[in-house]
From TrEMBL, chains A, B:
Pfam families with a match to the protein in the record: HCS_D2 (PF22617), HMGL-like (PF00682), LeuA_dimer (PF08502)
Protein name: Citramalate synthase
Bilayer-crossing regions: none
Source species of the chain: Albidovulum aquaemixtae
Gene Ontology terms, MF aspect: (R)-citramalate synthase activity; 2-isopropylmalate synthase activity
Name of the gene this protein is made from: cimA
Amino acid sequence: MKLDRLYLYDTTLRDGQQTQGVQFSVAEKRQIAAALDALGIDHIEGGWPGANPTDSDFFDSRPDTKATFTAFGMTKRAGRSAENDDVLAAVLNAGTPAVCLVGKTYDFHVTAALGITLEENVENIAASIAHCVAKGRETLFDAEHFFDGWRADPAYALVCLKAAYDAGARWIVLCDTNGGTLPADVGRITEEVIAAGIPGDRLGIHTHNDTENAVAASLAAVDAGARQIQGTLNGLGERCGNANLTSLIPTLLLKEPYASRYETGVTRAALKGLTRASRLLDDILNRVPLRSAPYVGASAFAHKAGLHASAILKDPTTYEHIDPGIVGNERVIPMSNQAGQSNLRARLAAAGIKVPAKDARLARILETIKAREDMGYAYDGAQASFELLARRELGLLPDFFEVKRYRVTVERRKNRRDRMVTMSEAVVVVKIGGEKMLSVSESMDEAGSDRGPVNALSKALAKDLGPYQANIDDMKLVDFKVRITQGGTEAVTRVIIDSEDGEGHRWSTVGVSPNIVDASFEALLDAITWKLVHDGAAPA
Amino acid sequence: MKLDRLYLYDTTLRDGQQTQGVQFSVAEKRQIAAALDALGIDHIEGGWPGANPTDSDFFDSRPDTKATFTAFGMTKRAGRSAENDDVLAAVLNAGTPAVCLVGKTYDFHVTAALGITLEENVENIAASIAHCVAKGRETLFDAEHFFDGWRADPAYALVCLKAAYDAGARWIVLCDTNGGTLPADVGRITEEVIAAGIPGDRLGIHTHNDTENAVAASLAAVDAGARQIQGTLNGLGERCGNANLTSLIPTLLLKEPYASRYETGVTRAALKGLTRASRLLDDILNRVPLRSAPYVGASAFAHKAGLHASAILKDPTTYEHIDPGIVGNERVIPMSNQAGQSNLRARLAAAGIKVPAKDARLARILETIKAREDMGYAYDGAQASFELLARRELGLLPDFFEVKRYRVTVERRKNRRDRMVTMSEAVVVVKIGGEKMLSVSESMDEAGSDRGPVNALSKALAKDLGPYQANIDDMKLVDFKVRITQGGTEAVTRVIIDSEDGEGHRWSTVGVSPNIVDASFEALLDAITWKLVHDGAAPA
């Protein structure tokens, strides 16, 4: 039996950019658009041409996509023709195959926010949509505040929708702009709209997460007959965010009744890239990915409770609703003082270390972990440091080298040209075998600007490790996360460092200290030691 | 008309503790329990007595609460009587008025995970519940994997529920343990259970957020007739978390049909404490609160889009689904390069700075903000630094003092007793009026342990500010957040510092630099300067 087509419309680059603290560059927008296209999204809304320079530049240089590139704008202002509205002109001049125009459908907004008559508003909608359709664009109408408008005056809200529909809009998008409408109401009102004569295969749904129901409300609209879902990657968006496509996509592909009732542009193969796409967006935003994110979060398939972990070892389906691999995510048996020995053995096995059950050293490792977690360490996210800790307890960690001392200086002062400049310098003394090595390094990059004390330290440390130099030459620090695990002046700092080598192996290490330089140094040392262990380097 | 009573059951201290990276101390559990009690939660589940030392200690020293204190455990194991099951005994020995026992209702789990017969499992449920009821406890039965079990074998799942019900369980809690059941199915199955003879006012719902539908699924169960909701503050919990009470509570109190159909233990007055309770939990967890959190997030009522902001200024209801004050949150007009001049003027007004519309300096301030945000600054969260930036542009910022130079040294080496120790020292030279002041400080706390370079700097800076000493003496650094705004070695560091004075005023400042010490220093300077401005200190 032929499946019904469901369309996915992404607005990460427009509504997503309304997120507090989010501002995309043109290059970043191109990168995100490519990722959305690889997923198989139907429409990519790139922004509002003319509203700000970035968006205009982006449309000029937008990538070629299978997805229908869409420019966002608003219906023409009153007192001028669609042809003579410069804002609308800027949107059309972007030259995209599709345009999405937001307009009012809530009488209160027409009078309170726009300050025009109800009739003028209907006229603006009809004329603007007709104008875009005449220009040969696939035209969408975003019915702003639709659900609030329908509750206040269903007759007028419907007149607005019909105006857009009769003018030839391909999609009429019901927007819950303020995000306060609950799923049951979204479903009921969508049914009422369809009953009033707008076919479901011309209806889209656009929800916000202000009651934490954006995903459920989108599903309710689909259940009622709507066939387009608007949302964003990672649920980015104004206030509490938009409907999260990262959660909706796997649900539509994997869960009933959707899986056997609808088809989308996203293939099972593309679905494997979902976790990567989600993490890419966080990388671009320099955000720590939300561990608890459905499907794609680092904790989404993490089994901390001892009972769960032991059952998982027998059969993963006991505590997993899907196989993490389907969305490109993975199972995690986090190390923590909650965990039982079965977690520990599973995690050691993952590191290639076999320890028989009931081995007394398992209890000792758990105690050490508990003690260190009390100090602020976190091994959930730092598998490499966990592995080193375990190897130490198990007597499987060679002494590669010893750090005798280090000194870092950060100085800010006027330079000769009387400009304030900052410089950092690090001295590290390590002992390898019998030999003592003293290295010094500044922290200037090519541009001659200071990269700070941690950079100076890592350079000094990597400068001369004698017999191990070849092992660390292809190592690079790819990420550096700092968490203050106690607020205020008593702050204890936790540093997590992600390292990568030439073959693309990636590993995470942790350091903890009230002194951020010290914490960083500890994580750096672990990173190098782990590399030496995995290269099978022989202790000098 | 008499309202139906809905009961709220909190499991933050038990299921919430299953969150990756979360481990509560006894003191923290007491603090959270008190906050939950102040909100008006009906049941507080404190943990699993006997499962780990912390939980056992907590029950021994638990606070007095209006809420029904509940101990969690599991049904007795096969092959022994309830009286002789030591695990069950430990739960009862906690001496709580209520106990909640988890048990299996899914045939696959009975055989695969427990490895006992289906009959034995039913016997374990009945005997365990009866035993707790006989001991005079309010007894709850957590039907683990109930929805999966019902789909696989509704007859057996029902037999398990009936066993608990007939044995006298006050509440039968339907658990979607793996979190994969969608709201529509939760609603339908809950109706079927009620139709099968378990009254709705004896049914609870326990969902997880693995498809981002935990809140919606809880509402669906209530719509179907269930009368207890289990969840956690901030949606803490295993994997993707539990149903988020922080989102559910305001929805139940403020949204229809719930507001006029049900009553809960949470009063409108207590609801004002919701945001504080949510932030308290994050403080305890040393987590940065989720800005986009529904109702309580810092961005939940932030209006970034220029169009939204200008409408909000006319009438807040245009873009807000509720009044933020009702949940103890507040409206934010964040500063950002997306914002129009109306945002800017509103935010300046909030800082007590009146600037006429269309004033040319407004555009200049916006440009400066854009330029600095491109460098990595973020003024959304740093109102005090935003205010100083604006005052500088407006010529409203006196020159209080000038920093001529500073130097910080961090050194790690062996001390006399041959132990590795770290020490930090800072020298700061400031010029006030004509006078030059040189201050030096170490970063040792009372315990004589090093608190790091930033601590040393802030101490040296605060040591002698001559005429301003009185202004800064009551200042303290209450929080310190570090964000790497570019990964890898090219990392640029953003530091946000929260400061507080004697009257409890709190303000946030930001500093950005590739050098974390420098970034911290910049934020420290802003914090002091803001205090001097607001004290109306006269420039020396």
